[in-house]
Amino acid sequence: MQQKLNDFINENKSMIQEEMKTHMHNLDIPVRLKKSMLYSIEAGGKRLRPILLLAGFKAYGTNIKKVLSTAIALEMIHTYSLVHDDLPAMDDDDLRRGQPTNHKVFDDATAILAGDALLTYSFELITNDPYLSDTQKVYIIKLLTEASGPKGMVAGQILDMEAEKKEINLQELETIHTLKTGELLRFAIRSGAYIGEATNAQVEYLDEFAYYLGLIFQVQDDILDVTGDPDKIGKPVGSDEVNQKNTYPKLLGLDGAIEKKQYYVKMAKRALENANAETSYLMLLTDYFSNRDY
Amino acid sequence: MQQKLNDFINENKSMIQEEMKTHMHNLDIPVRLKKSMLYSIEAGGKRLRPILLLAGFKAYGTNIKKVLSTAIALEMIHTYSLVHDDLPAMDDDDLRRGQPTNHKVFDDATAILAGDALLTYSFELITNDPYLSDTQKVYIIKLLTEASGPKGMVAGQILDMEAEKKEINLQELETIHTLKTGELLRFAIRSGAYIGEATNAQVEYLDEFAYYLGLIFQVQDDILDVTGDPDKIGKPVGSDEVNQKNTYPKLLGLDGAIEKKQYYVKMAKRALENANAETSYLMLLTDYFSNRDY
User: Fold this and answer.
1) pLDDT tens-place string over residues A209-244
2) Distance between alpha carbon B276 and the CA centroid of its chain, in Å?
3) Going along chain A, which residue ranges are E strands?
4) CB contact under 8 A, B124 and A146
5) Closest by Cβ to A32, choosing from B27, B145, B158
6) What is the reported pLDDT for B267?
7) What is the structure's pLDDT at A1?
8) At what angle do helices B68-85 and B2-25 cross, to 10 degrees?
């Protein structure tokens, strides 16, 4: 089963990356802007969001071409959020995945504009998709704006900034994560299933699944900052404690955090079973999210 | 005729502003994010873009409700671009229209996020419009992403930044303006006419009109920086010369710039006549753009 998942991830990762590059290379735009957008797109990453989208689709649909533009649009929005997050005015990070951040290679102004361009272009991509109906395009753009805009990811970023200066409780911590990270993961699964023509009831159960998957992702992130291998995760461990970040281990202790994660895994799998998607890659991805070491 | 235009502008300006505020106040998002978005939305401005959109629509259509969301989305995108443009990493402006810029009132991080949120929310608004068909929504979002993204406004901003350090010729200057300012004006007129169900041929002529209108707007901007009244334009005159900006008066002399503007006015009006929109507010707006003193 592990091999099956690895093959699925590796094949789709390559496909997503090729598709993104092709789209970008075909764009007739100023050289510096293109270089800056491409730099962050090619900087790698696990491509978890488009892979989740493909897995959500595969649980019900077959023709993978139907989800490619949406998957790429999603990854571009994730990429834009990282480019803006790394800016000196935000997290002020010089490195991401071991490479200099966008504004370090270009400059702050170019990084701001490249982020704006990636965000805007992601919606353009969906409007031009030849495999989706207009009704599907409108619904997907609506879901994506809700997930990434002021009600979703951007709300999470503002709340996260505000929480840095104070103590928060577990419920507040989960709200921040659900908005900042969870909403895009939720979009991935929801839009994949929708394009795969899952029933409304199935989409609702997958929505519940996605909620828990987002939390699993975050608890594991926090756990890795305590117990992870710095070489594998690509950054020093213990930085959350130094930065006095609100994390699961801080609020619950390390054992409490692991216990919480196991509870979320149980809830996620139960929702999957209800969604009649239990034979899909989503089940394998749940354990992958829970056990990842980077 | 002047009174007719003034009434049109004032009535629609108020309506647009009320609509924008209502939409924003109804948004259930973090307080700080909402305050920052509202601050820049309420900061005023001429609302030229939504007014042009309404005028483009009025040349063919009647039920104004059909264009309200699109007009507001357009103004929100214009607003986001100003918020990001004013950032220290970009133009580093402390004042806009005599008031402190967004990042001065809040902070750089909040201004970046408020801009991102305005951009994303503008597309969400269009997906939720109850008066447009899905086909219309997809086409409008496509036009708006093209006008504001890496092929349009953002391309213009990058090229403008690069041109600051060198001498450019008239053609290069016009390319920058067409992308940076013209594309959104073009979207205003084109989408208004499209929703008003103008024929394809009429839309093409209006497109030509919009191209010249954008240039008229820019030449007059440059002229006002030489001959304008600082109290009216809200900033000191002569700043373009001090900043060694590439402008029409610099490349053509003041008389040459005025002559060029008159040529553009002639071309704009000819296109309008071809579009069978000669009785519309667009004709009046052409003179208004050409003769404005602020």
Assistant:
1) 999 999 999 999 999 999 988 888 777 788 788 777
2) 24
3) 95-96, 99-100
4) yes
5) B158
6) 97
7) 67
8) 80
pLDDT of residue B1: 67
The per-residue pLDDT for A281 is: 92
Counting the structural domains of chain A, the total is 1
Cβ-based neighbours of A31, under 8 Å, separated by 6 or more: none
Greater confidence (A244 vs B258) lies with: B258
Q: In this predicted model, what pLDDT tens digit does every residue of B43-60 receive, in sequence order?
A: 988 999 999 999 999 999
- In whole angstroms, give the CA distance from residue A42 to residue A39: 5
In a 13 Å sphere around the CA of A204, the CA atoms on its Cβ side amount to 4
**Residue range of the domain that includes A75:** 2-291
What distance in Å separates residue B28's CA from the closest CA in chain A? 7
Q: Quick check: A89 and B84 CB within 8 A?
A: no
- Best mutation site among B103, B138, B140, B176 for testing chain A: the one with the most A CBs within 10 Å? B138
Tens digits of residue pLDDT in A138-177: 999 999 999 999 999 999 999 999 998 788 999 999 999 9
- Best to test chain B binding among A69, A76, A127 (most B CBs inside 10 Å): A127
**Cβ–Cβ under 8 Å, residues A188 and A210:** yes
Give the chain B residue nearest A140 (alpha carbons): B127
CB A141 within 8 A of CB B132: no
CB B128 within 8 A of CB A142: yes
Residue A49: its H or E element: helix A48-58
Indicate yes or no: CB of A149 within 8 angstroms of CB of B121.
Answer: yes
Q: Tell me if A56 sits within 8 A of A196, measured CB to CB.
A: yes
Comparing CB atoms, the residue among B29, B90, B151 nearest residue A151 is B29
Note the pLDDT tens digit of each residue in B75-107. Answer: 999 999 999 999 999 999 999 888 999 999 999
Contacts of B176 (CB under 8 A, 6+ apart): B156, B159, B160, B163, B168, B246
Query: What is the per-residue pLDDT for A53?
Result: 97
Which whole-number Å values give the CA distances from B196 to B17, B53, B86, in the listed order? 22, 10, 35
The CATH number that applies at residue B221 is: 1.10.600.10
Can you read off the two tokens belonging to residue B182? 């013209």
Alpha-carbon gap: A253 to the closest alpha carbon of chain B (Å): 29
pLDDT band at A50 (very low <50, low <70, confident <90, very high): very high
Give me the pLDDT at residue B152, please.
Answer: 98
Closest CA to B179 of B93, B268, B171: B171
Give the amino acid at B20: M
Chain A contact set for B88 (CB, 8 A) = 89
Minimum Cα–Cα distance from B120: chain A residue:
A149
Say how many C-beta atoms besides its own lie within 10 A of residue B238's C-beta.
11
- Average pLDDT, rounded, for chain A: 94
